Amino acid sequence: MLNGSKQAQAEGIRVGIVHSLTGTLALGEAPLRDAALMAIAEINQAGGVLGQQICPIVEDSASDPATFQQKVRELAQAGITTFFGGWSSTGRKLAIPVLEAFDAQLWYPVQYEGLECSPQVFYTGLCPNQQVEPAVKWLLEQGRDRFYLLGMDYVFPRVSNKVIKAQLNQLGGSLVGEVYPPLGQKDFQEIIQDIRQVQPDVIFSTVNGDANIYLYQQYHAAGLNDDELPIMAMSVSEQEAQEIGPVAAGHYAAWSYFQSLDTAANRDFIQRFQARYGAQRVTSDPIEAAYTQVYLWQQAVEQAQSIAPAAVRAAACGQTFNAPSGQVTLSRNHHLQKPFHIGQILPTGQFEIVFSSPQVTLPQPWLGAETYSTNGRGLIIDMLAEVSQSIQYSCELDQKSRQLAEANQQLQTLSDRMELLRRNLSSQIRRSLDLNTVLNTTVQEIYALLQVDCCQFYGCEISSDAVQIAPSHQAGTISPDWFELTDDPIANALKSYFFEPGLIQRQPLLIDNIERDRQLPEPYRLALQAAGIRSLIAILVDVSPQRAGLLTCQQIHQLRRWQRHEVELLEDIADQVGIAIDQSALYKEAQTAANRAQQQAQQLAQAMTRLRETQAQLIQTEKMSSLGQLVAGIAHEINNPVNFIHGNISHAQSYMLDLIDLVQGYRASVPKPSPAVEALLRQIDLPYLKEDYPKVFASMQQGTERIRELVLGLRNFSRLDEYELKRVDFHQGLESTLLILKSRLKQTSHRPEIAVVKDYASLPLVECYASQLNQVFLNLLSNAIDALDDNFAATPAQASTCPLRPQPNETQLTDRPQIHLRTQITANARIVFCVTDNGTGISAEVRAKLFDPFFTTKPVGQGTGLGLSISYQIITQTHRGRIWCNSATDQGTEFWIEIPISQALE
């Protein structure tokens, strides 16, 4: 608030600028502030007024007439006597008594309904005979005589439409419709439907503010044509047309000024305005009036050499000014003599002037009654003033009636919502045992229903020596953020009220005005007040001797008198929340017990699974051990006689050669053997015997060597002497396994022989458990053979043709069964082995369970489901490696294993 003569002197000449900067009227009214400020800045730059700078005080009337009156009163109380602003007639009429009380002056820049001439107001906009009457006359001359009157429900449209109806009766026009939606109306669909039915020639619109945007857009969307049914607007200027957009093109407006006026003064005005506010800004009739009236005031002050309203009033009448619209003159009736134009809206938002009056129009706010020479002129003017006043009262009565109906509706809605809230919370508690859900729903519903600034739930932990209070759920916002405070003033205040040593206060805490509260100790009250809280209510949620809660509502922006029904509602909710907390605690205990039981059951199931796996692994290990012992025993038993035979073959061959040499010697010594010897020689065919016996001995030697190889392979596979970690030849174990499975690789009645393609890299000795690794080889190769048996048991046309990766100098046999073996060494010293087959492949569902114990796809009695599971454990646990499978249905299968070369490196 500005006060004090010294402050006023230091600030220069203070003037008030009161316009709607927010709300439905801000669209057209906010630019008027800019125009006034521009004129003041220019005057100040030129030296000011009476040698002093003009100091504007800007206030927002928020599109509310009562707020306009209040702002004028506050500034007048601060010593300001000159005001520029206003828009709605209701606001102006409410302000006039305030202006009279403080002898202040208002410069009003907007067209209005006339029937008023207050000495406290200079009307620089248009009155009806300068805008409405010539617009109606022009429309009638264009052959548009069926009028539909559309105006907002306040004084200007209603009075203006009375003038229009009288004019239509006088000039032969007709009225086919008349409606007054409330200020700020957004839905014009019913009105447009009514227009379609009555079929007027023209819509005469006194719609104001941003409602014009919705009107023109919906009018265009309904397909109403501006040529056949145009709108003549009294409140659509360039500012509104720019916001409405191209849908307004073709319609009309009547003003004393358009930006499209082609005069030097106007071009200079537009250039200065856009240089100050931006090239995209437009000027308009109200903007021009708001600018012009500041200069008229300045001229009057300079002539009067005073800013006193009485002196300015006397000096103002007769002032002229070269305005952007042309030369204007301030008449003795406080109205301006102004020109008249009709413009048609262009798609750009500008106006093409289609009619201009030949000369300025003299203002006649009393509909020409002021020109009467009769003695009853004063009475007529007084009666006309009563018309305007009665219309205002009627509008105010209608508005209050609507407000009362809305208040009753809101009260009924509030009652319905309170009952719904009770039911909703009860249902929520029954439906959900989750305390977090219940509390969050509670604060959100209370916040929305009571329309408080903030609703919170505080959890309270009570012990014999302390009470801990902390907010846990919140709806709405208060400042600062209580969840981040280390010393929450609300928590401290609640603790002081509800929890005394050995006593819990169960009565609600109700504070309508924190400044006057006497329930809280002074430090806590002051802390809440300093935090910005103005009203507070808190209800105890009684749960148990160790646990409680508090439901709180705070008002920050305004005081609130808590109603009894609100307190009762919060008490009911607190009871239900207490039940929810109890139920939640019981549910948690039951859930905890169930979780413990479930965990124990899972542990038992896991133990049983591990036991079965261990048991199966022991069985499998024992089987492999027995197999190894059997193979080793057989190998040992075979090895001895084979070694004996193999070792004696060379001696037998040597002996036989000696005997042959002896026979040859005898033949040389005895050329003529006896008949018996001749017969024996012919019988044994000595030449053939001499030729064939080396072949026989060579064949026998090869056979014994093959037997020795088989025995060695059996011993290598069993590895009875290598059950500890040792360095072995990886490929040797693989070859031993192939030897064991050689009979399964041979051709059968339903498939060709399985080709084994080997792609071995040069590998160092691998540190491993050789017998266990051989067991993995056996499982993987056996599964590959099974897959090929299944696949190639089908007809050749049905068999899978899975492509194997090509290898150097090798031909793919994709139409025949094939197993591909590859080994390689990685850069991080690990051995990688891959077994690939072109069998039936494995689906994703089966592949996900391959390594699960006891999982098998083989028929009952043909598989245990342990082979791959045990292989997985051998590779991942025993050898700290990896094993995985790549496969898809009808795409063959790859099994990969990867183990470190040295276990010590892992």
From TrEMBL:
Keywords: Coiled coil, Kinase, Phosphoprotein, Transferase, Two-component regulatory system. InterPro entries: ABC_urea-bd_UrtA, GAF, GAF-like_dom_sf, HATPase_C_sf, HATPase_dom, His_kinase_dom, HisK_dim/P_dom, HisK_dim/P_sf. Residues 633-903 form the Histidine kinase domain. It holds the Pfam family GAF. It comes from the Bacteria. Residues 390-431, 587-624 form a coiled coil. GO terms for molecular function: phosphorelay sensor kinase activity. This is histidine kinase. It comes from Vasconcelosia minhoensis LEGE 07310. The lineage of its organism: Bacteria, Bacillati, Cyanobacteriota, Cyanophyceae, Nodosilineales.
